[in-house]
Design brief:
Length: 171
């Protein structure tokens, strides 16, 4: 029950409600129910998560105003077609797991670029993804990492760093 969730969240509305992965319920049915919540003022905006290719196209064909697609994006996983399709349709793209799972922060090429820019490897990755007009949501419980991640919002990478990152990421 939606009102139960609102009480638990101690709020009157939800800013952004996402479908998390296409499931067994038809997307049209799920988005229809979400639109009812939006019409009732319970939800402000609708989004999707994990939609690529045919499932993304299915949503676009429904002509439902989704504003965000949350997908895995980092220096190893960069679904360029999905990103371009969403951005061309006015759908923002959120990168979950922008720092990847294991390995990325110890990647020699990334460390070398970060050292040249005098920033951390995490800041390099986040700054690069932000330059691609992506929303990034790194996860950390460590205050120092959170502060470093926040600083990435104001980092301007050099043209050389951008070119090197492009060659590493968009293969």
């Amino acid at each position: 029950d939606t009102h139960k969730f609102l009480l638990e969240l101690k709020t009157d509305y939800i800013d952004l409600l996402l479908i998390h992965w296409p499931g067994s319920t038809p997307v049209a049915e799920t988005l229809g129910a979400m639109q009812e919540l939006q019409a009732d003022g319970v939800v402000k905006s609708l989004g999707i998560s994990g939609f690529h290719g045919a499932t993304l196209q299915e949503v676009l064909d429904l002509d439902v105003p989704v504003i965000n697609n949350q997908i895995e994006i980092n220096t190893k996983v960069y679904p360029a077609q999905t990103i371009e399709k969403c951005q061309s349709q006015g759908i923002t793209v959120t990168s979950y797991s922008p720092l990847g799972v294991g390995g990325l922060l110890s990647n020699r090429d990334l460390i070398q670029i970060a050292n040249k820019e005098q920033i951390t490897t995490a800041q390099l990755i986040l700054a690069y993804l932000l330059c691609q007009d992506l929303i990034v949501i790194p996860r950390s419980a460590n205050f120092e990492h959170i502060a470093d991640n926040w600083e990435s919002c104001s980092i301007e990478l050099s043209q050389d760093a951008m070119q090197r990152m492009d060659s590493l990421v968009k293969k």
